Amino acid sequence: MEPNLTERSGEGCYVALTHGHLHAQDIIDRVRSPQAGAIVLFAGTTRDNFAGKPVKELQYSAYSPMALKTMLSICIDIRARHSLESIAMIHRLGTVPIGEESILIAVSAPHRQAAWRAGEEALEDCKKHVEVWKREEFEGEEGVWRANRDGLLGQKIAEKDGKN
Amino acid sequence: MGAIPKPPQGQFNVLYFASANSFTSKEYDTLPAPLPISQLFDALEEKHSGIKDKILSSCLVTVNLNYVNVPNDDGEDASDSSVVIQAGDEVAIIPPVSSG
Q1: Which residues bind substrate (chain A) (predicted)?
Q2: Architecture of domain A6-145
Q3: CB contact (8 A) between residue B65 and residue A156
Q4: Are B97 and A67 in contact (CB under 8 A)?
Q5: How far apart are CA A138 and CA A53, in angstroms?
Q6: What dihedral angle (degrees, nearest 10) is formed by the CA atoms of B5, B11, B13, B14?
Q7: If you average pLDDT over every residue of chain A, what do you get?
Q8: Which has the closest alpha carbon to A72: A120, A6, A14?
Q9: What is the model's pTM?
Q10: Which of A121, A145, A149, A160 to substitute to test the interface with B, most B CBs within 10 Å?
Q11: Closest by alpha carbon to B61, among B95, B33, B12?
């Protein structure tokens, strides 16, 4: 059993949060289908710098029930809009050393074009909305909570883009 | 975040994540209910001086896993938002997210 794995699924969608390592083959197998001619996998890995400043490691925390709810609603929406066979999204929490996967998204579709597009949209929606936070730990100074819309920090998002 | 205990009778929990968690050095606070949503940020400012400007101004708020509108100070009519936080509700302060 994976450490602290929480998951939800339904309608050809699977979402999960885990404190364990992520496994690309597992998520690919989860969306595999005889009706699919393409599986696209995205693996987000932790980078060793922020704007040139060396990052030691990353810490991810989540509002888990909310994050799972948002991930599932993103997946259901994207699966319907791109007529996917299946979509799966898993995010790692806790300390993630540099160079390791922090998120995996896999989508399967009858044809590759839809799979490419859906994979990219799923990641963008996830980064915009999913209630997970990244803290970058630097060598010899205090860590920083990153915001994906950095540069806009302090501005309230007026529209929640139909998020419930 | 560890398991948050259920609030005592007549109260509700406010959960803090990321920058809100760092600012308060707490995972949650417990406040008396009922409380109109328009008074939430002032109630938190009383407990954590400076939190409104430094943290809450860039945050969203959920009640029982649904996003709610929090009227701001700048003349927006507080009656816009009819949400009143009830005893036992789970309120959360949601800073700008950074998954991926």
Answers
A1: 111-112, 127, 134-136
A2: Alpha-Beta Complex (3.90)
A3: no
A4: no
A5: 8
A6: -160
A7: 90
A8: A14
A9: 0.90
A10: A145
A11: B95
Asked if B60 and B41 touch (Cβ cutoff 8 Å), the reply is no
Spatial neighbors of A109 by CB under 8 A, at least 6 apart, are A36, A37, A38, A40, A82, A83, A84, A85, A115, A118
Using alpha carbons only, what angle is made at residue B18 by residues B13 and B23, rounded to the nearest 5 degrees?
75
Give the span between the Cα atoms of A119 and A30, in whole angstroms.
15
Residue of B nearest to A101 (CA): B100
pLDDT digits (tens, 9 = 90+) for A86-125: 999 999 999 999 999 999 999 999 999 999 999 999 999 9
Q: What is the DSSP string of A89-153?
A: EEEE-EEEETTSEEEEEEEEESSHHHHHHHHHHHHHHHHHH--EEEEEEETTEEEEE--TTTTST
**Residue in the structure block whose two tokens are 């710098």:** A49
Interface confidence: ipTM more than 0.90: yes
- How many DSSP H helices and E strands does chain A contain? 3, 10
Residue A115, both tokens: 């799979």
Q: How far apart are the first and last CA of chain B?
A: 19
Distance set, CA B9 to CA A93, B32, B40, B47 (Å): 33, 9, 19, 20
Could you tell me the domains of chain B?
13-94 (3.10.20.30)
Out of B18, B65, B96, the one facing A149 most closely (by C-beta) is B96
Contact criterion met (CB < 8 Å) for A132 and B94: no
